[in-house]
Amino acid sequence: MSLYGFLQHTVRAFWHLVGPLHVRGAGNVPSNGPFLLIANHESYLDPILIQAVCPRPVRAMAKSTQFTSRFYRAIMVPLGAFPVRRFEIDPQAVRQVLRALEAGEGVCIYIEGERSWDARLQPPRLGTVRLILKAGVPVIPCAIRGSYDVMPRWDSRIRRAPVFITFGEPLRFPRLDSRADREAVLPLAASRITAAIQELLDQIPQHAPAGQ
């Protein structure tokens, strides 16, 4: 078993100590070929949980400051995560994504670019949408709810609460090599992706953290 597989197995085996983990739509993840997994972002725990239940290995784009934590670095590096500088253009991170896709891998990107302060979906980072249009691979919308209740952005304590993860049906976008072509369809593509994630979130039961 690879280290990636071992970490997946470990998280799935012991997460029940924190709370139930409900997964739907795993069959929507392509069995082969490149794809982008585009998710909302509620907690530091999201990459750990999503990659633990995704039926195919995916590499995750994560903010560079997370790699300064020994704990998260020890988990994220074996999971194939790579750093990206937030709030600025990061050509190196874009190249890493495109190389991974060209190699037939899956890559996970959190479209909000940062964790939500209130568990609601934030506006998308348009740089991510531009990358999606440049890549031209299947896009799997992914919704996670409940990780905010377990460990929200404003706290480092872990609480017991259920987590729900749903993988949506693939979205298809043409590969647009021209910057002008990408800019022309950018608003529509951004709206379509966020609407797909919000629809998945709306299908997940609303709940309060355990013990409240």
The helix content is 25-40%
Provide the CATH superfamily.
Glycerol-3-phosphate (1)-acyltransferase
- Number of domain modules: 1
What is the CA-based Rg, rounded? 16 Å
Q: Find the structural class using helix and strand composition.
A: alpha/beta
Number of helices: 7
State the CATH architecture.
Answer: 3-Layer(aba) Sandwich
**How many beta strands in the DSSP annotation?**
7
Shape: globular
Structure description:
With 212 residues, the protein is an alpha/beta fold. The protein has one domain (16-202): Glycerol-3-phosphate (1)-acyltransferase (3-Layer(aba) Sandwich). The protein is 36% helix and 17% strand. It is built from seven helices and seven strands, in the order H-E-E-H-E-H-E-H-E-H-E-H-E-H. It has helices spanning 3-14, 46-53, 70-76, 91-102, 126-135, 147-150, 179-202, and strands at 21-24, 35-39, 58-63, 82-84, 106-110, 139-145, 163-167. The protein has a seven-stranded mixed β-sheet, with helices on both faces. Strand 3, helix 3 (70-76) and strand 4 form a beta-alpha-beta unit. Helix 1 (3-14) crosses helix 2 (46-53). It is globular. The N and C termini lie far apart (40 Å). Residues 208-212 have low confidence and may be disordered.
Layout: helices, strands, pairs:
Blueprint: H1 3-14, E1 21-24, E2 35-39, H2 46-53, E3 58-63, H3 70-76, E4 82-84, H4 91-102, E5 106-110, H5 126-135, E6 139-145, H6 147-150, E7 163-167, H7 179-202
Parallel strand pairs: 1-7, 2-5, 2-6, 3-4, 3-5
Antiparallel strand pairs: 6-7
